TrEMBL record, chains A, B:
A motif (HXTX 2) lies at residues 116-119. It comes from Halobacillus kuroshimensis. InterPro entries: 2H_phosphoesterase_YjcG-like, Cyclic_Pdiesterase, YjcG. This is Putative phosphoesterase JF544_00755. PANTHER family: PHOSPHOESTERASE SAOUHSC_00951-RELATED, PHOSPHOESTERASE YJCG-RELATED. Its EC number is 3.1.-.-. The lineage of its organism: Bacteria, Bacillati, Bacillota, Bacilli, Bacillales.
Length: 171, 171
């Protein structure tokens, strides 16, 4: 089964992200707005229960909740036409990402970690220019907190279902 | 904010439900297939953290995981044109439902609890006759387990985001 680890922002931030995703993100219906904390990985259910969840509990227990800000959009262009709400980088979010690639957790990383909330993807080059041109003018002033992360699995239709929640700083 | 409590079936059962929901359920994109364990209710975030989550932890701790079977579809017709995978009733699932209407949890119940996974809704009467006529012929033999429930909140677009997971039989 395919698993992933994500942080869901507060409702306030999710609503802002969805106002753009609705128009520009074909994954709008597959998962709520999120910060991908670990790229999707394959695992057996047995291993999830016996090894991975215990380690995720440990990581959560040893990580304090932290704040982040969102002030503007950015893009992965020219690699992809993805546009995202940029999460202001912090040591805390990079540390959490690092921890999620240790121990029994798959360590392969296809990309350097860029904390973000996708709001547009799979746009044609022309659409991208138009949309990015207008979104890049926007200024946000969103303050939010990461106090949990979630382990999800992917259904056959591509949608993601939450399997378990891990609260930061809790046993 | 609007909250709800649901059980998400295993991937196997979710995939079966989605194969019908895709065609017949306009809520397909708003939430994965689920068993609603408590009708949506309004609450303040403060109250969720200070009162409701602690009680949900207690309920989860004092409820053992239990099995259920899905063998056929049924419908709420003529009240609504909703068609669902019928969860074979068990004392355990009714007990859990009862507990979720006690203490600080809102006690209003608009409907008698009928454990189910919706696969079609908001059909016209004509569509309903056609679809129900064919789905009602289906036989399933799905065995699944409830070992957790989830507290969700609703976003402005109508989609539901998981706030926390509660494992049955755990402190």
């Amino acid at each position: 089964m395919k698993y992933g680890i994500a942080v869901f922002p507060s409702k306030k931030v999710q609503d802002v992200a969805n106002s753009y995703r609705k128009r520009y993100d074909p994954h709008y219906a597959l998962i709520p707005p999120h910060i991908t904390m670990k790229e999707a990985f394959e695992a057996e259910e047995d291993q999830i229960e016996s090894e991975i969840i215990p380690q995720l509990r440990e990581i959560a227990k040893n990580t304090e909740p932290f704040s982040y800000g969102v002030y503007k959009v950015s893009s992965f262009s020219p690699v992809t036409n993805t546009i995202y709400l940029k999460i202001e980088p912090s040591d805390e979010i990079f540390d959490l990402n690092d921890k999620l690639y240790t121990g029994v957790l798959p360590e392969e990383k296809d990309f350097a970690f860029v904390p973000h909330i996708t709001i547009a993807q799979k746009l044609s080059d022309e659409e991208f220019s138009d949309v990015y041109g207008s979104l890049t003018m926007l200024k946000f002033d969103l303050q939010d907190q990461v106090d949990r992360f979630q382990l999800l699995y992917q259904l056959e239709n591509g949608a993601w279902s939450v399997y378990e929640t891990f609260r930061l700083g809790r046993g």
